[in-house]
């Protein structure tokens, strides 16, 4: 059996109401995504410490799933009228073939070599090199599987620069991959912080799966204070701008910082902010993304 997928871009005023109307008139499921994802206009929707939550995305992509015989255009027309949209919104309808979705999803996630000695290995695979440092990690709700360039950039930095014995803060820890990798690479202790409770739960589960115990994960208002030898933050440019004083304050004098989640075109802007506290190295780029690093004065 095949399905139909309806994709509509709309602004924040109509996104949730349109999603509800589509569900009421036959959609099997509806997802809301940031229509500006992976662009300079990408918007974080989680609030940061000391800042009010930004709320919802301003430009939304509504993706709705229907049975193959559904009158998708008719349902969209009805839903649009209900929420007060004039005319039929610009949209597209795609056919989604029937598949074994579990196997199809798993086939997209092979073991990822980060370096000669560091690999990310999904649980359904056998490690290619049992003697390597293998981080067992499955794709899930939290960001960070090793497949995104920003995660790989941070992992390579950790692999190349950790000396052993460091205290590490991973701010915006997602799946916990960077904190877990830091411990496996010799750090003495790591703390992961994320504004998403699901990410904190996923990070704790991943640490257990990797038999890593020298790490703890928290929501921001529960995290311990203090300063760290290394602070790493793989999030997005706008949160990194807002968090600069907090991340600088969490780094000890002489300690290091690693920042990613930054588009290549935004690297200089972020560097200009963090140069208030850090002597920064030359940025490293991969696939249009940046990794910044430096030492606190």
UniProtKB/TrEMBL annotation:
Protein's GO biological process: methylation
Catalytic activity of the protein: L-lysyl-[protein] + 3 S-adenosyl-L-methionine = N(6),N(6),N(6)-trimethyl-L-lysyl-[protein] + 3 S-adenosyl-L-homocysteine + 3 H(+)
Its EC number(s): 2.1.1.-
Entry GO CC: cytosol; ribosome
Pfam family, one: PrmA
Keywords: Cytoplasm, Methyltransferase, Ribonucleoprotein, Ribosomal protein, S-adenosyl-L-methionine, Transferase
Domain of life: Bacteria
Annotated binding of S-adenosyl-L-methionine, by residue: 151, 172, 194, 234
ATP-binding in keyword set: no
TM helices/strands, residue ranges: none
SUPFAM superfamilies (alphabetical): S-adenosyl-L-methionine-dependent methyltransferases
Annotated InterPro entries: Ribosomal_L11_MeTrfase_PrmA, Ribosomal_PrmA_MeTrfase, SAM-dependent_MTases_sf
Family matches, as NCBIfam families: prmA (TIGR00406)
Cited function: Methylates ribosomal protein L11.
PANTHER family xref list: ELECTRON TRANSFER FLAVOPROTEIN BETA SUBUNIT LYSINE METHYLTRANSFERASE
Protein name: Ribosomal protein L11 methyltransferase
Highest classification ranks of the organism: Bacteria, Pseudomonadati, Pseudomonadota, Betaproteobacteria, Nitrosomonadales
């Amino acid at each position: 059996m095949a399905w139909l997928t309806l994709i509509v871009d709309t602004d924040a005023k109509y996104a949730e109401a349109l999603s509800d109307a589509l569900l009421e008139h036959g959609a099997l499921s509806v997802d809301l995504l940031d229509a500006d994802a992976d662009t300079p206009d990408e918007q974080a929707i989680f609030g940061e410490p000391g800042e009010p939550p930004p709320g919802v995305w301003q430009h939304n992509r509504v993706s709705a799933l229907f049975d193959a015989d559904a009158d998708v255009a008719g349902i969209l027309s009805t839903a649009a009228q209900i929420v007060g949209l004039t005319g039929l919104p610009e949209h597209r309808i795609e056919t989604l073939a029937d598949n074994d979705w579990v196997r199809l999803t798993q086939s997209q996630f092979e073991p990822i070599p980060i370096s000669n000695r560091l690999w990310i290995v999904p649980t359904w695979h056998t490690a290619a090199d049992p003697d390597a440092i293998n981080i067992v990690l499955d794709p899930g709700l939290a960001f960070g599987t090793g497949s995104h360039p920003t995660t790989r950039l941070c992992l390579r930095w950790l692999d190349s620069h950790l000396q052993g014995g460091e205290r590490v803060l991973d701010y915006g820890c997602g799946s916990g991959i960077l904190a877990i990798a830091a411990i496996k690479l010799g750090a003495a202790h790591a703390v992961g912080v994320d504004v998403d409770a699901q990410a904190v739960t996923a990070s704790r589960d991943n640490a257990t799966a990797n038999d890593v115990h020298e790490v703890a994960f928290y929501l921001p208002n529960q995290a311990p204070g203090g300063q760290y030898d290394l602070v790493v933050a793989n999030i997005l440019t706008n949160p990194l701008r807002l968090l600069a004083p907090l991340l600088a304050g969490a780094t000890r004098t002489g300690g290091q910082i690693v920042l990613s989640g930054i588009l290549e075109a935004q690297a200089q802007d972020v560097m200009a902010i963090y140069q208030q506290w850090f002597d920064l190295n030359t940025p490293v780029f991969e696939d249009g993304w940046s990794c910044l690093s430096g030492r606190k004065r």
